[in-house]
Write a structure and sequence with these properties.
The protein is α/β, with parallel strands linked by helices and about 210 residues long. It has a single domain, classed as Rossmann fold (3-Layer(aba) Sandwich). Helices cover about 50% and strands about 15% of the residues. It contains 8 helices and 5 strands, in the order βαβαααβαβααβα. It has a 5-stranded parallel sheet. The longest helix has 19 residues. The chain starts with 5 loop residues before the first strand and ends in a 6-residue tail after the last helix. The protein binds adenosine monophosphate (AMP). The site of adenosine monophosphate has 16 residues, from helix 2 and helix 3. Adenosine monophosphate binds next to helix 2 and helix 3.
Amino acid sequence: MSTQRFKSVLLFGAPGAGKGTQGKILGKIPGFFHLACGDVFRSLDLSSELGKKFLEYSSRGELVPDDLTIEMWRQNMQAQTVLSLYKPAVDLLILDGIPRSVAQARALEKYLDVLEVIHLVCPDRDEMVRRMRKRALKENRLDDADEKVIRRRFEVYDRETAPVLACYERSIISDVDAMGSPAEVLQHVLEVVVPVQNQHFRNPLG
Ligand code: AMP
């Protein structure tokens, strides 16, 4: 992959905080490219070796091992770039669900120029569980339908993912209240990402 690091914003937060909802909306706006690591995993052929690994770990609410995850992410980014779906010179990359461990954050340093981390803060775990259950039914996400797996996902978040925040300068971390409606949360997310985009890219339509 090119040695130029991708200018990116990380959507960060616990399962059910709304990273995917916000990322999908941002991804529809010219000049933003959204990539959700979980979506890439779910798009795999589940009978392939990597697909089987994904099922094995995700069905327990655990993280896929770091080396497999980073390699899959790298190959996917390369494909998106070759196909010009993602254009690093004009698009701000919005990453959702990666990095999810300190080792992943370190491994991504050579690929990413992280301009901002949006930390979606949702202190109400019951609300997040409610969102995950709703989504499980709508999107056929078996891992989010089972109470035990959901609980495990929170444990893994607290133990392995929350420490990732400390890998970034406090000055580039924005806490955004994730408890409101998707539109309210979006308003706050845009307040953070639009200035970042303006500072680093020319108007994509200009
Ligand atoms: P998500 O859709 O982001 O909730 O991810 C669903 C599942 O995919 C997770 O529970 C993990 O098993 C796996 N996964 C997604 N992103 C990562 C990552 N960055 N590292 C390891 N596993 C991941």
